[in-house]
Amino acid sequence: MPSGSVSISVRGARRVYPVKGGTDLIALDDVDLSVPAGSFVSVIGPSGCGKSTLLRLVAGLEEADRGDVRVCGVRPAEAAAAKMLGLVPQAPALLPWLTVLKNVTLPLRVNRAASRRRASAPGPSMEELLRKAGLQDAMHKLPSQLSGGMQQRTAIVRAFGLRPDVLLMDEPFSALDEFTRESLQEQLLDLWDELKATVLFVTHSVSEAVRLSDKIVVMAPRPGRITDIIDVRLPRPRRAELLKTPEFHHYEDLVRDRLRGAFQANAA
Ligand SMILES: Nc1ncnc2c1ncn2[C@@H]1O[C@H](COP(=O)(O)OP(=O)(O)OP(=O)(O)O)[C@@H](O)[C@H]1O
User: Fold this and answer.
1) Domain named ABC transporter: which ranges (predicted)?
2) CB atoms within 10 A of CB 12
3) CA distances from 166 to 23, 41, 144, 154 (A)
4) 3-class SS at 41?
């Protein structure tokens, strides 16, 4: 995908869920979003504001009732079938009877589109990626022998290793303790920097959003909508020391201020 192009385009998207015997729930209303190729964009907002719904529309798991969603210029379902699109859910979803290495290489063995994509985008092998993610001693272990953080790292390596143009991540670190989370953020940024996928990342954590993102999309509920898009102009690489700087705190305060409005909309 040429630089300067848009990887994810959402135009006037609306998604309504019918409520039995009540008023329909507008999970997303008139959502417009352009995610530039190669950028890291986070989505943050109160529970129920439509973050996961937006991700599901972009993943092609659901269709918008109105509006248009494109991934690399095509419909999300097409992008997913061609493996241009990857998804990392909240739980790592590894097969318990396969080793870490076999888990990450499985899609390449069973899915022709996945192996074609990987062949067309040469780069580090899955073993190298596992080593970079600090999983060298875990390659031949079963998921049950790993900590939650290591399992999630495995799922992230699997997703990046398929070389998608676009990677969607739905709160992938929410079940982890703060220190594990910080170390995974660092590894995620290293992988992203090396493999150059466009990432759309859902989180509830302000500091996580600031550390990872080029842009932060703030959403509010009832109806689910985008209320702000904040450009994060912090230098990269963003190592742990950055989290203590006044510049970092400035962005945390800015996002919190904008979020406050979204939470007030929730309470109203
Ligand atoms: N399949 C569904 N059927 C009916 N209502 C749904 C469905 N999926 C989501 N909703 C509702 O749509 C709204 C948006 O849900 P969504 O999961 O996208 O929010 P979210 O911002 O991701 O929330 P959270 O932060 O709690 O994960 C919520 O009110 C939710 O209850």
Assistant:
1) 8-242
2) 13
3) 35, 11, 29, 18
4) strand
Residue 230, H or E segment: strand 225-231
Give the DSSP letter of residue 74.
B
Largest CA distance in the chain: 55
Does the CB atom of residue 53 touch ligand 1 within 6 A? yes
Q: Which residue has the tokens 């390596």?
A: 157
Residue 233: pLDDT over 80 = yes
The per-residue pLDDT for 178 is: 87
Choose which residue among 10, 31, 49 to substitute to test ligand 1 binding: the one with the highest number of ligand atoms within 8 A of its C-beta. 49
* Contact (Cβ atoms closer than 8 angstroms) between residue 130 and residue 136: yes
Confidence of residue 1 (pLDDT cuts 50, 70, 90): low
pTM of the model: 0.93
Give the pLDDT confidence of 116-172 residue by residue, as tens digits. Answer: 877 777 778 889 989 988 899 999 999 999 999 899 999 999 988 888 999 999 999
Q: Residues 74, 80, 84, CA angle at the centre, nearest 5°?
A: 75
Which numbered atom of ligand 1 lies nearest the CA of 219? 21
- Torsion region of 71: left, alpha or beta (phi above 0 gives left; psi -120 to 50 gives alpha): beta
